[in-house]
Structure formats: C-alpha cells, structure tokens
Amino acid sequence: MSPNSCWLCKIFRAEENGISSKVSLEEVLQWSQSFEKLVTSKYGPLIYKTYLKTEHSDENIEFWLACEAYKKITSQRKRISVARKLFTGYIQPQAPKEINIDSPVRNAIIRNIQEPTESCFDEAQRIIYMHMERDSYPRFLESRFYQKLKHSLQTNSN
Fold first, then answer.
1. Which intervals hold domain RGS (predicted)?
2. Which CATH number fits domain 25-156: 2.40.128.280, 3.40.50.11810, 1.10.167.10, 1.10.10.10?
C-alpha cells in the first residue's frame, strides 16, 4: 500500500505535524454528533480534509472553507481578487479543483463575478456542504481513519 493511500500513514503524518497530539477525545467524539460540529471545530476541518484526500474530494472542504473566509472580506478590491481566484480554482469548467455544482448555479456565478457580492458563492457553498454532509461525512465516520483516531485517543486517555 502506498503512503498516499495508507490511513495509518496519514495518522502518523498528522502525529508528526502535532495535530493528533493536540486534538482532544472530546472534540473527536463531537464530530460524530453532526457535520456542523465537525466543520466548525478547531481541528475537524483539517482531519476531515486529510480523509477527503483519500477519496480525492478534498476540493469540497477547501472550497467551503475558502467561502467562509470570503464572506468575512470587507474590502471590495480584495473581494474581487479573491472571488476571481475562487472562480478560476473551483467554479469555471475544467478548473484545477472543479467542484460539482449544477449549471444554473455556475452560470449565476459567471454572471456575477465582475461585481462579486459577499453572497455570490452562497448557493455553491450550500450545495457543496450538502454533498459532504450526505456523502462523504457518513463514510468518514465509518472509516478506519476516524475509528483509529478515536480509538487511539480513547486508549491514550485511559
């Protein structure tokens, strides 16, 4: 098994980066309560992204997090710059990390990209959130990746 697809290797890499030594058992257990608790926790998005890489769908959490940051931008000049980066990175057809959204949503963003508002990516972000919540989140909770992380923290706390 290659190091890129080995769940144990990923946990060890997380360990090397100090992530799994910082994450608490309480936080990890909360992730199973709801998808929202996972994506709004301190280390959840990073651990979830590591899992999504094994499914080749980490662009979803990256886009969702980028949209969260985008909404906080107050400068119109910066908003335009970041909106174009989001568009070229995730929205436009054949984008390097193209996300799975339907044509009407993509077309609405294309129409609004010249004068982007704080909410111009909201519908795409909502769709991606739903994809993750319905599809990859349940698999994450059942994955050996999550189960091993939870087990290792439970073992360490005893």
1. 34-150
2. 1.10.167.10
